[in-house]
Amino acid sequence: MDSKEFFIPRLGEAQIASPVQAMEFVPDDATVAYDTSTAVLEEYVKNGQAIPAFEQAGPRKLIYHDPAWSKAAILTAGGLCPGLNDVIKFLTLTLKNIYHVPLVYGIRYGYRGLNPAHGLAPIQLNEDNTDDIHQQGGTILGSSRGEESAEIMVETLARMNINLVFCIGGDGTARGAHDIAVEAERRGLSISVISIPKTIDNDIAFIDKSFGFETAVYMAGIFAAGAHNEAKGAYNGIGLVKVMGRDSGFIAAYATLAQSYVNYCLVPESKFVLDGDGPDALLPHLYKRMLEKQHAVIMVAEGAGQELFPQGEDVRDASGNLINKDIGLLLKDRINQYFKERNTEVNIKYFDLAYTIRSVAAHGADAVFCAMLAQNAVHAAMAGRTDMVVGHWNGHFTHVPIALATRERKKIQLNSPLWTSVKASTCF
Amino acid sequence: MDSKEFFIPRLGEAQIASPVQAMEFVPDDATVAYDTSTAVLEEYVKNGQAIPAFEQAGPRKLIYHDPAWSKAAILTAGGLCPGLNDVIKFLTLTLKNIYHVPLVYGIRYGYRGLNPAHGLAPIQLNEDNTDDIHQQGGTILGSSRGEESAEIMVETLARMNINLVFCIGGDGTARGAHDIAVEAERRGLSISVISIPKTIDNDIAFIDKSFGFETAVYMAGIFAAGAHNEAKGAYNGIGLVKVMGRDSGFIAAYATLAQSYVNYCLVPESKFVLDGDGPDALLPHLYKRMLEKQHAVIMVAEGAGQELFPQGEDVRDASGNLINKDIGLLLKDRINQYFKERNTEVNIKYFDLAYTIRSVAAHGADAVFCAMLAQNAVHAAMAGRTDMVVGHWNGHFTHVPIALATRERKKIQLNSPLWTSVKASTCF
Amino acid sequence: MDSKEFFIPRLGEAQIASPVQAMEFVPDDATVAYDTSTAVLEEYVKNGQAIPAFEQAGPRKLIYHDPAWSKAAILTAGGLCPGLNDVIKFLTLTLKNIYHVPLVYGIRYGYRGLNPAHGLAPIQLNEDNTDDIHQQGGTILGSSRGEESAEIMVETLARMNINLVFCIGGDGTARGAHDIAVEAERRGLSISVISIPKTIDNDIAFIDKSFGFETAVYMAGIFAAGAHNEAKGAYNGIGLVKVMGRDSGFIAAYATLAQSYVNYCLVPESKFVLDGDGPDALLPHLYKRMLEKQHAVIMVAEGAGQELFPQGEDVRDASGNLINKDIGLLLKDRINQYFKERNTEVNIKYFDLAYTIRSVAAHGADAVFCAMLAQNAVHAAMAGRTDMVVGHWNGHFTHVPIALATRERKKIQLNSPLWTSVKASTCF
Amino acid sequence: MDSKEFFIPRLGEAQIASPVQAMEFVPDDATVAYDTSTAVLEEYVKNGQAIPAFEQAGPRKLIYHDPAWSKAAILTAGGLCPGLNDVIKFLTLTLKNIYHVPLVYGIRYGYRGLNPAHGLAPIQLNEDNTDDIHQQGGTILGSSRGEESAEIMVETLARMNINLVFCIGGDGTARGAHDIAVEAERRGLSISVISIPKTIDNDIAFIDKSFGFETAVYMAGIFAAGAHNEAKGAYNGIGLVKVMGRDSGFIAAYATLAQSYVNYCLVPESKFVLDGDGPDALLPHLYKRMLEKQHAVIMVAEGAGQELFPQGEDVRDASGNLINKDIGLLLKDRINQYFKERNTEVNIKYFDLAYTIRSVAAHGADAVFCAMLAQNAVHAAMAGRTDMVVGHWNGHFTHVPIALATRERKKIQLNSPLWTSVKASTCF
Question: CA A202, CA A214: separation in Å to the nearest integer?
Fold first, then answer.
């Protein structure tokens, strides 16, 4: 890594005393080293190179935006994720109670709400109308996919004198935030644009943890146990559970360990074939297990095994994400066929968890993470940072350049402790 | 109703003093009137007719089977349902702790386990190996669909000297129990065959409540709330939830009231059309609502709207049940098409709850119902009743002839308080 | 029972056509027989007596109050109970959507809100502000204990032209509703006063089921399992769980069956002593069990064993309920002492569930019951019934005179199937 | 920090090829830097000092113990914590499936089970008898407090030829593990003794996360919402919730953020007084809030406010932990008194969560953490490490010397992001 890649833009010099009370301020040059290996760290120093590190998040003693003159906007984009309302609530509380920003707007339906052509009036957010929202799944603001023109959106922000923008969403949303930041700079507007990373798949690079993920794992675990019950309840029963995970199989891997009844964990990162003699051939392995044990649970991420489909035209959603072909149905069909050819009874019970695990409220430590992430986003914005994602690394909240966060997707490393644990817990 | 239809066969005269302690015995002629209207009740008496009534369940002072010489068998058949393990546990506890029956067999995989051709050895059940099972969904015995020859099964029972048989399952299972009872009688064997009604759809006639149903409603409610979050989270969002309910829409109706966010509740009992000018045309009504409110939740029972599919050959499962065509997918397609034709954005999020709501453990009062149902099944068997279903009516546990229980399915009455409440809570 | 005791007062002749659509009206003389035994029923008829029966609840073809001129008030009194907000929501929906009553007031903090001295302004309830409330525990209206003068309250109702009053609460609340009805009649005001029975203890006579009870049982069951884990986790561990149940032990009994790990279920209805030689002596029995099994779970209702305390002055709460002495702490002390005297280690883990099981939202079928109860309360009020409780009996919703409902508390019958099941599942 | 404090003892040279498949081995000198600030890190290097760092956990290419000759023992000590059974299951699976260790003993009731005087036979653990245990709270092995003689315990290990010992428990348990390691070394026995840190309070120094903590936070959050409902349900209602947290208030702080209804979060780290004029005076602040808002929720850790009690003799439990005086009851009494003196009604609802939040099964990501912690404990033991705790730091699993882990307790830093977030979310 090159330490220059970690640079975070600032709107200007912070000169206003922070109104934040009873809190140790984080120095402007505080860092969180990217690496933790002492050998690697020493190497940098000995070579005279700066240690690559994230800017550490947190409240600054001097801030850039004058709270009394500030107006904030919050929006949510992309698919639902547990915790959206916690983030909205804590952005609002921190802006209103800690910094005393007088006006906080909730923008409706993502970037769409910043384009007046859609006629979507914003909501004023405050302590009272956000008090209960953490108990609801979804987002009180509504969400949408797709892009709007940066020129039009910045025109709206300029017209409304908004200088603090919080965009909660995935990498598409982060790229939109970047476009807004660039356009604002072009027009000479001092607008802090902060992206708050939302990915139920936990697949954002350079960020070690995403909100909503743990709640999704908890929900998936409930049904992994149900799939086990279905598998044992029928003769030669197979519980087949499909979960989210377009490019990365973190939900599948975690749910496998959280409900350690799962026998096969299929993720995009680990290729397998259906038939053949190799150790990566699913059907013969499964057939053998069924003869021995008469039951099995298969957990499959939606993005797994895409290469098993006949090649054809790709289909993409409004956010530009490739739409996966349904690996769950393919597995169901092929397993049924394989057993039928061998005159062996099999009873597959298919659980497609799609929306069931993402539409609930975040809970416990996951909700706490939302609260702290939101607060650090506000600290960053008030300090005049922009064009960045608020992240988490090595136990600290961090500032991450959007370019870095969207460069690639985080994936399961097949030699990592996580995947090793999955292998130890499963049989394939 | 004719009072003769309520007759329950007895194997012979009960002459053995019950070992049951500290419990008021239920007289052999105790009854639970079928009707509750005083006008109807008076009419019977004035006409000199017997009031139609179920035999009341409960422990008898004199029993038919000598516990010390008894051997019991328990089996589960058909699809999973919350509470199967509670029933198995309380059958075992009552047989062992209350009646001191020395041997209780758990038969594997339903009726299949009574046919030696399948090579499935039974399990001996006792207090220790059933102690934790109420915390698990599914059935520890395994289940299966399909029939076995009554001759072969009774031969097995005779060979093993089993005189108490408990068949937990739906109406197919009850018919199988009847066949066993008839064959046992033909062979002169004194075997009590008791059917314990299992239907997650709560659709057994002459029985006002089925175990597992309430837990399924609870689970479905969680996802109805999730569907509401998805509907509000996207612009013109529709949460579409499909639940079980082949012939009867009780789960859909109850879940609609339990999570009163649902706007459309579609059940087999209430016909609707997709398009047209009438008040029963779903798509125009939905389209109008979406223009006004921008979100909707639809709850649909799997058996609803089957007449909307093109006619073709019926497909049946191994239990002989008609397999429904997927009304959820049809609705999804037709709604998308309808809105597309009108150039109106719509975002449908489809929840197919199939197995997710039936594979969990029963909880709370539902588990209590399992416990009491199981106990009354044992009391009936020990008293020498056979060829019957243990049921519940007007607040009492009852004995129901299998012919009565399987004569028709219980359905939602469209003029009942239940459906009235659903109509008040929804908009269609 | 005497059939005259079932008489429900009517404000006057119902002459207005009901606006209720698509619903079969319940005839004004529809009844639900109190008894279900055919022998008992026949006896009444043969003796020329009317069969004692409740008036059946439900919508009437002709109603008394003109909806367009009506104003309704809803209040909640006494302790929290799961489902209060469901009842409030469905009263509101039924009044507004089915009967088109223009104004529905939510009265704050029980009867207190009807006394202007407290300065508590009412809330206007409608579809929008009640849409989410079923997801919250507690009551959005606030509650309180204690009485207010009927004269003052009726003066408030008269001043506000309120002709429909719904009082959700226990037997104290029902008596308050009766006082309002009497005072309204004295002043010649046509006010329907309907009491909706709330008792988490499920102890109201002549009503077979109370809302909130099933949710409380579900919650108590979670901790009964936790108590089992604590008991097995420590050497000679005892999990001691205290639940609500001042006069009746229904929660304790149901939770015992719902989580069938409980070994001792102690309720007010079944007396026991601490020491001695008898079979009802708890400590020697427990001591013996611990030597054999090294663990035990005790479920105790707060009102159990009150006679074990030294006699003294009774303490009552603001509702006039006798405050129980803490049987949980007494048991904890006496068990510790008993084992200490015998030099035997014991590790008691005490769970006092008090508020933890009553402050949650109602769920599943329990929420459905709230919805239907509320609707039937509105039907009764609109039809001009007053001075009554809406109840449930033998599978039907009913009208119950307040005098009957408050005459005595429902208690566990020690020879009932419920208690029999508890005895079968426990060891004492 | 001094880098020497991070040294982990090794039993001898690792010479045996690891049987672990398809996993990247962690080099023996892999490290996880203690600090993440680049300025601090550079300072060490420039001063010629080694960067203080933990040994990184994970599988080694060469191991010390020959699996085929190995025997393992697992024990759990101290209070219950969610996840104990997950740890036991994954220790067993890793030992049996990954390393093929033939014998894994479960020792009953903590260290007590290693003293033959108690007559507690061990259990043989395997894949089958641990398959379901992750679904149960508590520990299948039983637990206990208190010490046993290291000489006697090592004599037992020697007699049974056990060379791998896993002690799951708090700092008392870690000290016991240290004593075993020292005694084993004195006798020349090659026994790896690995401590697995269990603290529901999340208060072990040099370890950033403890298993069970997140599940406890989740449970506490449910009741914080209940306390909010009770507070709003009564006039001038106060929901008072006591949670675990003897020396550190992490559960209270996290639960406050997870259910952001809490208005006062009282922890041992932040002193407060009851009365007076200062900003740290609880009662006047609370009184003022109640006049304005009529409701409040207080979350208090059991160790908070201990200095408010009259001084007296300290009481300690069998593990030597100081037993706290009941701050919950003190607050309840003093608040009642304060309001009474001011003739102001107040309704306090007290929730003592004690065992209710620790006796449940771990779920979701918390269970995953248990699985991975257990696996790394086995890797450490097989590689010949001893006298250490397996920990987690900066996103990596680590080896921590027992002396370091038990030197002090981790506490909430009052200037940390966590406490800052709590202050932002509460009013005191």
Answer: 9
Pairwise CB contact (< 8 Å): C368 & B258? yes
Do residues C284 and C241 touch, judged by C-beta distance below 8 A?
A: no
Stated pTM of the model:
0.94
Q: What is the pLDDT of residues B253-303, one digit of tens each?
A: 999 999 999 999 999 999 999 999 998 999 999 999 999 999 999 999 999
User: Catalytic: which of D171, D179, D201, D387?
Assistant: D201
* Residues D171/D220, Cβ–Cβ less than 8 Å: no
Chain B interface disruption, residue of D135, D140, D359, D360, most B CBs within 10 A: D135
Quick check: B318 and B146 in contact, CB under 8 A? yes
**What is the rounded average pLDDT of the residues B213-238?**
95
Q: Which residues of D touch B136 (CB under 8 A)?
A: 132, 135
Neighbours of chain A (3+ CB pairs under 8 A): B, C, D
CA C206 to chain CA centroid, Å, is 12
Quick check: D232 and C349 CB within 8 A?
no
D63 sits in which H/E element: strand D62-63
Residue window 148-167, chain B: list those with CB within 8 Å of chain C.
none
Amino acid identity for residue A426 in this structure: T
Which chain A residues contact residue B144 at CB under 8 A? Answer: 234-235
Q: Give the C window 68-107 contacts with B, CB below 8 Å.
A: 86, 89-90, 93-94, 97-98
Residue closest to C312 by CA, chosen among C295, C293, C325, C327:
C325
Using CA atoms, how far residue C12 sits from C62, C65, C185, in Å, is 12, 10, 11
What is the pairing mode between strands B388-393 and B396-401? antiparallel
Could you give the CA distance from residue B176 to residue B198 in angstroms, rounded to a whole number? 14
Which residues, other chains included, contact B128 with Cβ-Cβ below 8 Å and sequence gap of 6+?
none
Give the tens place of pLDDT for each residue, C204-260. 989 999 999 999 999 999 999 999 999 999 999 999 999 999 999 999 999 999 999
How many Cβ atoms are within 10 Å of A143's Cβ, its own excluded?
31
A201 is catalytic: yes
| CA pair distance B373, B397, nearest whole angstrom | 7
Query: Hey, what domains does chain D have and what are their CATH numbers?
Result: 3-210+362-405 (3.40.50.450), 213-359 (3.40.50.460)
The answer to whether the CB of A108 falls within 8 A of the CB of A198 is no
Query: Touching B: which chains, 3+ CB pairs < 8 A?
Result: A, C, D
Burial class of D149 by CB neighbour count within 10 A (0 to 12, 13 to 18, 19+)? middle
Distance CA B398, CA B27 (A): 13
